[in-house]
Amino acid sequence: MARLILFNKPYGVLSQFTDRGTPEARATLSDHIDVPGVYPAGRLDRDSEGLLILTDDGALQARIASPKHKTPKTYLAQVEGEPDAASLDRLRAGVMLNDGMTRPATVRRIDPPELWHRDPPVRYRKSVPDSWIELTITEGRNRQVRRMTAAVGYPTLRLVRWRIGEWEIGVLAPGAWRAVSP
Asked: What's the CATH code of the domain at 18?
């Protein structure tokens, strides 16, 4: 039977087990997960947080990560400014990025969620308000959510992936993981 691990990836951790990118050591999955033979099904940028799924089943990994399977991924995004209805409608319709049009997203404004403290904290600017949106996409392009919110005029300040398909982060603390049945 396949192994499936839900991991709450902290800010600043790479979505891989080794770091070959720079001379200085950066935090990786191996700093948090000591389970042989599992690999991430998709990625989260170093500066994004939240749900990362790891598995030892290649077919399941492909089903979760591949855009052709359209697995929904839900993010909580703290954005600079307060998106108006027209901007949210643009996200719902799909946004033109430098690598083409995105698929339509499901998006809504939400109250600030009760999340863990992030280190370092998001910069606070008195003169610029921020707000939160919940955004669900069925792709997974490089930095897609950040590029989408920026394209409609509301850059992302903090990004937390909350759900992938049927799996949700729930009460997992940053850096914690749990095994679940696939």
From this structure: 3.30.70.580
Using alpha carbons, list the distances in angstroms from residue 85 to 89, 90, 97, 109: 6, 9, 20, 10
Q: In sequence order, which residues have a C-beta less than 8 Å from that of residue 17 and are 6 or more positions away?
A: 28, 29, 30, 33
* pLDDT tens digits, one per residue of 25-69: 899 999 999 999 999 998 999 999 999 999 999 998 988 888 888
| Domain around 176 | 1-67+166-182
**Residue of 31, 45, 56, 57 with catalytic role:** 45
Q: 89 an active-site residue?
A: no
3-state secondary structure of 117: coil
Statement to judge: residues 98 and 149 lie in one domain: yes
Q: Global pTM?
A: 0.94
SS3 content of the chain, % helix, strand, coil (to 5): 15, 30, 55
- Same domain, residue pair 76 and 149: yes
